[in-house]
Amino acid sequence: MFNDADYRDEDDYDPEPVYLDNSKKTTAPEADGDGDDDLPPILDDLTDKGDAGKQWYVVHCYSGYENKVRHAIEQRIETMGMRDKIFDVIVPTEEEIEVKEGKRRTVERRVFPGYILVEMKMDEDSWYVVRNTPGVTGFVGMGNDPTPLRPEEVRQIIDRMAQEAPKPRLTYKVGQKVRIIEGPFNDFIGTVAAIDMDKSKVRVMVNFFGRDTPVELDFLEVEKV
């Protein structure tokens, strides 16, 4: 479901201004059959079936723009009176520990670069508000139909965001050269032979007196050369 998007620096993104005057409140225009803003077929079905209930949808945007797009959608919810149809907007993130220049630091990483999640009741108005937010390139779904996430998919993402301890961030892979930065082998250079994700361990082949010797270390005891 999630694909890579073109990267753009978030600081360069400047969404169009949102009117604060309620007199500027906008509603969805009728689709005329031309252009990218035509309503997807699913909305015709929802019109006949009534309120489909609130669900989580995946919205695609430019990678690096996620937080500013989220903020723009939240502004439009307020100014366009959509609180009863669009309930929450999140950028899935998780904390990781990385080693850089021998120092550990905790960083926040986007779980799905280029995507945000929106909890909403899908109808013509709510679709229009989200789809036409600057920076949004579309909903994820089959063809032109936005596809809601299954409850178990939402639960998995929320659980991932709520993890108590940040996990180590791997910047190396099998076959790459790394430097040991802690313990009795500090500053030795070796080659990654194996990575055990379950135990957060890495096996490094270090040359001692002309022989390669395996050394098992924690993920954060080595860094990429």
Task: Summarize the structure in words.
The chain has 225 residues and is an alpha+beta fold. The chain has 2 domains: 10-167, Alpha-Beta Plaits; 170-224, SH3 type barrels. The chain is built from 4 helices and 14 strands. The chain has helices at residues 41-49, 66-79, 124-131, 151-161, and strands spanning 54-61, 86-90, 93-100, 103-110, 115-121, 136-139, 141-142, 145-146, 167-168, 177-180, 189-196, 201-208, 211-218, 222-224. The strands form 4 sheets. It has a 5-stranded antiparallel β-sheet with strand order 13-12-11-10-14, with no helix packed on it. The protein has a 4-stranded antiparallel β-sheet with strand order 2-5-1-6, with helices on one face. The protein has a 3-stranded mixed β-sheet with strand order 4-3-9, with no helix packed on it. Strand 7 and strand 8 (145-146) form a beta hairpin.
The gist of it:
It is built from four helices and 14 strands. It is an alpha+beta fold.
Q: Mind sketching the topology for me?
A:
Blueprint: H1 41-49, E1 54-61, H2 66-79, E2 86-90, E3 93-100, E4 103-110, E5 115-121, H3 124-131, E6 136-139, E7 141-142, E8 145-146, H4 151-161, E9 167-168, E10 177-180, E11 189-196, E12 201-208, E13 211-218, E14 222-224
